[in-house]
Amino acid sequence: MTMTMTTLQPKAPNPVARLFLGSFGTYLVSFGSLFILWHVAATYVVGSALFPSPVGVVRQAIVLALDGSLWSNTRISLARILSGFAVGSVLGIAIGFLLGTIPVAKRFIEPYTEFLRFIPATALITVAVIWFGIGEASKVFLIAYTTIFIVIINTATGVASINRNKIRAAQCLGANRFQIFRYVQLPAALPFVLTGMRIAMANSFTTIVAAELVASNEGLGKMLWDARLYMLIDDIFVALICLGFIGFAADRLFRWAILRFAGRFSPIL
What we know:
Blueprint: H1 15-46, H2 54-66, H3 69-101, H4 103-116, H5 125-132, H6 136-160, H7 164-172, H8 177-214, H9 220-229, H10 233-262
Helix pairs in contact: 2-10, 3-4, 3-6, 3-8, 3-9, 5-6, 6-8, 7-8, 8-9, 8-10, 9-10
């Protein structure tokens, strides 16, 4: 009787999971060193109440978290960012593909985008409040505005960079317009689209703070404004650190989504 021995091979770890698990330790060391440098600078170099130590800021963050104000303001700002970012990204991708595929549309629409994108969203805060009031609509409008043009330019660039021979090859194989879009244009443009969305996300955080400083009753921007009025330096640093960590987490999640769902199209990161 012959017995066949089968060696069980260990399953290879997911490359996406391996990347982020491997980065976790690096993040801990990086942020830890940052807080150590901050503590040394605040304690031994500056020595001023206007530049608090990280210990005091963390203590104040715990106080604000326990009374619920930190969670409430963070949740409201994050909801506004996500809503405006989603609206601006969807519109930007659609317009970008239109500009990249239809030359006539590019000639007529591109001047509008090139003109409007040089008007900063912060300059439109007053207009947004007049049009939409101080409610959620004005914040969503401003974030969508600061998002859309970056996504348009990157998407149009990605579509325009497609090798024409690939499209001709697909046509020779009998592909219709939708199939060319689905199997040729979309995969080729996807890295550009995702890069534009990542850049636009950072702008969304900048815009929400400016909008909430001027026209809001809640949010991290409003928290910054109130802390400035009453010289609550610890509260200011708490809001700044929250914005930094939320932005960092959002960028890491975005990178994970790219690698998980579009890794074969994009070698990003």
